[in-house]
Specification:
Elements (H helix, E strand, L loop, with lengths): L6 E6 L5 E5 L2 E6 L2 H10 L8 E3 L11 H32 L3 H27 L8 H26 L7 H22 L9 H29 L4 E12 L5 E12 L5 E14 L7 E7 L7 E3 L4 E11 L6 E14 L3 E3 L8 E2 H7 L14 E11 L2 H7 L2 E9 L4 E7 L16 H7 L2 E4 L3 E4 H10 L4
Parallel strand pairs: 1-4
Antiparallel strand pairs: 1-2, 2-3, 5-6, 6-10, 7-8, 7-9, 7-11, 11-17, 11-18, 12-14, 13-14, 14-15, 15-16
Helix pairs in contact: 2-3, 2-4, 2-5, 3-4, 4-5, 4-8
Length: 467
């Protein structure tokens, strides 16, 4: 007589799984009648075997298969989207970030991408046969990382954008946060952490680790950039004058200096110098411009720590004995930005164009509100890249524009903004460049003014006159 194995199907547990026991030995847990047939087939039990149903008949399967599959698919999509975003940021920043802290952050994002992929694999086990005991806690960890990544990106986006705009990245980040919140709600209802021996200690460790990561990001991306400023110094020296043979012209040599006295390399976006004569007879204390020019050519040149640029300029003063001058003055100004905060395209140095050519090409109003129509200018413009891909994504595209404006006293003006931002050109508004100063360590360098009495220079030139 054939002895049929005893098959017992236990009542559904809190997750809807029913335990199968064959001859007193656990054979697994099943979600549905179809999975029960598969378990019996693997155990060699005939399909017509007698089954003892406990806690409900063969029609009681509380875990609906379609609902479970849809839940698992949505979670997996959220994990995959987060892993893709972390991989994109991590691969770029770990290799190309301008600072050591940025590269460490890149490796951190790569690590989170690996954890998200592990969560995807754990999801297949958790929503099918649950052969792995800790697949539920792994899903919970994946959902927490997903929420953390989405929240950090959204917060950085809100903090770095003056005018938030609709972008595909913004939609993705909002979707990641919504999906992560929903996943945490589902997993917390199922109390997936109860399989852990010390869930409280693990939770405290996770919270402390998260706080350390947030503190590191805030320190490297916000605090350090705002505290450290480039130190670039400019100075001028008025040299010995000389007269020509007939005394109708006086030549004066002026030495110009620009030095990086700080500890980080910088790039010189634009520079200018003036050599002027102070009019003694003018009650308004006005000056006569002798010579303006660029000290650093081409613009965008790197200046390493303790490196100095020097140039000698010779100016000519006609009829020096008949002129009523009080003094000769010289001064240097420049704009510099930190090399570890952004990079500019190599084409920046060759992008200079006069206003007339820009007008013919229809580019004289980009950015809007260029200098007054009666003023000529030379403009450089180039796209820039942030110090890390994390900042590139959250800040969006930006570019730098440098004007060399010709007027009674020529000036250099720098603007850093998104190509989509429409704002007016205003030389008299110091707030316009505050954002660029905070983000990129943009420094306005005004060198000390060198000044020599004109009569003293004239006497010295006459004393050394040839013949």
């Amino acid at each position: 007589m054939e002895i049929k194995p005893a098959v017992v199907v236990e009542p559904p547990d809190g997750n809807g799984l029913r335990k199968v026991v064959i001859d007193g030995k656990p054979a697994g847990k099943v979600w549905s009648h179809h999975e029960l047939e598969q378990v019996l087939h693997r155990a060699g039990v005939a399909p017509d075997a007698d089954i003892e149903w406990r806690g409900g008949s063969c029609t009681v399967w509380p875990a609906h298969s379609w609902g479970r599959r849809i839940t698992g698919i949505v979670m997996a999509l959220g994990f995959l989207a987060t892993a893709a975003m972390c991989t994109w940021i991590g691969m770029k920043d770990s290799l190309d970030a301008l600072t050591f802290a940025g590269r460490v952050t890149g490796f951190l994002f790569l690590f989170m991408a690996v954890l998200e992929l592990i969560a995807v694999v754990a999801g297949f086990d958790y929503w099918r046969n649950r052969k792995r005991k800790y697949s539920g806690p792994v899903l919970l960890l994946g959902a927490l990382i997903e929420l953390f990544v989405g929240s950090v990106l959204l917060l950085m986006y809100a903090a770095n954008r003056d005018k938030p705009s609709f972008t595909l990245c913004l939609v993705l980040w909002v979707g990641i946060v919504v999906c992560a919140s929903w996943s945490l709600w589902v997993l917390c209802r199922r109390r997936v952490w109860k399989v852990l021996r010390y869930p409280g200690r693990i939770a405290v460790g996770a919270i402390v680790s998260t706080l350390l990561v947030i503190t590191n990001l805030a320190y490297t991306q916000i605090y350090l950039p705002s505290m450290t400023r480039p130190l670039v110094q400019g100075s001028t020296e008025i040299g010995m004058p000389s007269l020509n043979k007939d005394g109708t012209k006086m030549y004066l040599r002026v030495r110009l200096h620009l030095k990086n006295s700080g500890e980080v390399p910088v790039h010189i976006l634009g520079s200018i110098y003036w050599i002027q004569l102070k009019l003694a007879s003018d009650p308004k204390d006005r000056y006569k411009l002798l010579k303006p020019g660029q000290l650093v050519e081409p613009p965008g040149r790197e200046l390493s720590p303790q490196e100095e640029i020097s140039e000698d300029v010779v100016v000519e003063i006609k009829n020096p004995g008949k002129a009523d001058y009080e003094a000769v003055t010289a001064q240097v100004e420049a704009y510099a930005f930190r090399q570890d905060r952004m990079t500019i395209d190599a084409a920046f140095k060759d992008s200079g164009e006069w206003r007339g050519k820009l007008k013919k090409e229809g580019k004289d109003d980009d950015p809007p509100g260029p200098p007054p129509a009666d003023k000529e200018y030379f403009r450089y413009q180039s796209a820039i890249s942030q110090s890390s891909e994390l900042l590139n994504l959250t800040r969006g595209r930006e570019r730098v524009t440098v004007w060399w404006l010709y007027r009674r006293l020529p000036v250099v003006y720098v603007d850093v903004a998104s190509p989509d931002v429409r704002k007016r050109f205003d030389l008299n508004d110091p707030k316009e460049q505050r954002r660029a100063v905070d983000r990129y360590g943009l420094a306005f360098v005004r060198g000390s003014m060198a000044q020599m009495p004109y009569t003293e220079l004239l006497k010295e030139a006459q004393a050394h006159r040839p013949g």
